[in-house]
Amino acid sequence: MRRRTVISLAVVAAMAISPMASASLYAVIFDDVPDSHTFANDILWAKDNGIVFGYGDGNFGPEDFMTRGQLTAVLHRYDSQLASKIVGEPGPAGPQGERGIQGPAGPQGDQGLQGLAGPQGDQGAQGPQGDQGPAGPQGEQGPAGPAGGVDSVYTVEAAFTSAPGGTAMCLDGDVALGGGWQTTDTGNFNVTGSYPTGDGEGWTVDLTQDKNGTIYVRCGDLTP
Fold first, then answer.
1. Where along the chain do its domains lie?
2. CB of 30 closer than 8 Å to CB of 59
3. What is the pLDDT of residues 86-135, one digit of tens each?
4. How many CB atoms lie within 10 A of CB 198?
5. CATH fold of the domain at 153-220
6. Is 46:16 a contact under the CB 8 Å cutoff?
7. Which residues of 7-39 are buried (b: 16+ CB within 10 A; e: fewer)?
8. Which of 9, 48, 49, 122 fits a 20 to 30 Å CA distance from 115?
9. What is the mean pLDDT of the chain?
10. What's the pLDDT tens digit per position in 42-77?
C-alpha cells in the first residue's frame, strides 16, 4: 500500500531556509502571507531563492498540503540553488614552498631604430637692451711735443648734435696743434674719444648719445 505523505508548504519553507538568512531582510510579497505569519520570513526567503513560487495569482497557500512529489521538487530546487553552492570557511594557508632556482637570462634583444629628429623650435624673442656701462677713466696726458716754429695759430670750431660725434678740420695744409670739445647740455654725457685725425689736420670727438656741443681744433701753419 502506497503511503501518502502530506506536509504544509509553510513548514517546507521553514525547513529549507538558510541559516544565514535574516528575518528582517524580507518584505511581504504574497497576499496571504502577512508580516504576522509565523513563517512569513521563511516563505519569502524561499521565494527569493527560487525554491518555492506560489500559485501565480498573488497567493502562496501557506496552510496547503504537499504531496511527496511536490516535496521532492522543493528539495531538488534547494539543492540546485543553494545547497551545492554553500562553501565552508577557507582553511589556513599552507606553508610557503621553497623558492625555485633562477632561470638563465634571455638573449639580448636587437637595438631599436633611432627615432626621427623633432621639428626646429621657434626662435626666441630678443632680450631687452642692457643698461649702458659707466664711462672709462680718463687717460694720462701725453708728453709734450718738440717745439717748432709756427707762423700763425688759429682756432676752428665745428658743432655736433648727435652720436657718433664730429670733426673740426684745419685749413688745407695746416696741422692740428690740439683740440677738444665743450657743451652746455646737462645730464650724462659720454665721450669715448677726443683725438687728432689720422692725417693730423683736424680734431675728432666720439660720442655714444645725442648731445649738443662744439668741437674745436687749434691749427698752425708750419710752412718754413
1. 7-85, 153-220
2. yes
3. 666 777 988 998 998 998 998 998 998 998 988 998 998 998 988 888 98
4. 8
5. Immunoglobulin-like (2.60.40)
6. yes
7. eebbbbbbebbeeebeeeebeeebebbeeebeb
8. 122
9. 80
10. 988 988 888 988 888 889 888 989 899 988 988 998
